[in-house]
Amino acid sequence: MENYRLSIIIPAFNEGKRIPLFLRELIEFSLKNLSNFEILIVNDGSTDNTKKVTRNIIKNYENIKIISYKENKGKGHAVLQGVINATGDFILFIDADGSTPPNEILNMFNLFKKFKFDVIIGSRRLDKSNIIYSQPFVRRFISHIFNFYSNFLFRLNIKDLLCGFKGFERNVAIQIFKDLKSYRWEFDVEILYRIKREGFKIFQLPIKWKHEEGSKIKPFDPILIFLNILKLRLKYI
Ligand SMILES: Nc1nc2c(ncn2[C@@H]2O[C@H](COP(=O)(O)OP(=O)(O)O)[C@@H](O)[C@H]2O)c(=O)[nH]1
Ligand SMILES: [Mg+2]
């Protein structure tokens, strides 16, 4: 099989507490299981020690880099910076909090190598998904409504739109992320909509997942997200 290169993007905003454990685990796993990879951590204007702790962990690896800028611009913007700088044949992003175990990266990458899917997205809502700790009830409830609402507005049929673990064939990633209109949480829906519009194939991968405390979603964010999704829809009319 060809020696495809994998790019792993980790968007990080004030993750000084949560990222060290996951990053160490990911590096150990990747060195053992992946032959050709890079990791790009995108520090999206964190005001804590994210940059310092990350630099310290990655200092001995030339294929692991941090991209950093001063102003917080949102997860979508951070992932976009990762995509622009990525050199892999397959490019994925994964949350910094360790909700998705590194082994799922290998599963996703192997599926890409075998079936050449354009896009593979992690899903916490398929029969075979394996949820170790669920999100709190209120979060699950809101995300249920969010999935329904966004699928309806954008004529999609995807069980879990917001899972922070998604991968793309290189050219698909570049095409989809080019001229992204939403830089914050809504970007997940926007990229899925564009993927469908361009006719790319999405494979939904059931994953093992656990809720991690310390979410960066603020109490009023859900209301903003619902409004922003509507605004986004209007931009595509
Ligand atoms: N770049 C960037 N990443 C963010 C921002 N907010 C959250 N994230 C990242 O998005 C991922 C998921 O965030 P998290 O707070 O765990 O969301 P939750 O699991 O849905 O509650 C983590 O890697 C965060 O660091 C942001 O404003 N900018
Ligand atoms: Mg999380």
Polypeptide structure, described:
With 237 residues, this protein is an alpha/beta fold. Helix 1 runs parallel beside helix 2 (50-58) and helix 5 packs parallel to helix 8 (221-235). The radius of gyration is 17 Å and the shape is globular. The chain contains eight helices and nine strands. The model has no long low-confidence stretch (mean pLDDT 96). Bound molecules: guanosine-5'-diphosphate and magnesium ion.
In short:
The chain has 237 residues and is of the alpha/beta class. It has helices spanning 19-33, 50-58, 75-85, 103-115, 137-154, 170-177, 187-197, 221-235, and strands spanning 6-12, 37-44, 64-69, 90-94, 119-123, 130-133, 165-169, 202-206, 208-210. The longest helix is centred in the middle third of the chain and has 18 residues, at 137-154.
Report the sheet-strand fraction: 15-25%
Helix/sheet category: alpha/beta
User: CATH H level: which superfamily?
Assistant: Spore Coat Polysaccharide Biosynthesis Protein SpsA, Chain A
CATH class: Alpha Beta
Bound molecules: guanosine-5'-diphosphate, magnesium ion
Mean pLDDT across every amino acid position: 96
CATH topology type: Spore Coat Polysaccharide Biosynthesis Protein SpsA, Chain A
Give unreliable regions as ranges: none
General shape: globular
Radius of gyration: 17 Å
Keywords:
237 residues, alpha/beta, Spore Coat Polysaccharide Biosynthesis Protein SpsA, Chain A, 7-stranded mixed sheet, two-stranded parallel ribbon, 8 helices, 20% strand, globular, binds guanosine-5'-diphosphate, binds magnesium ion
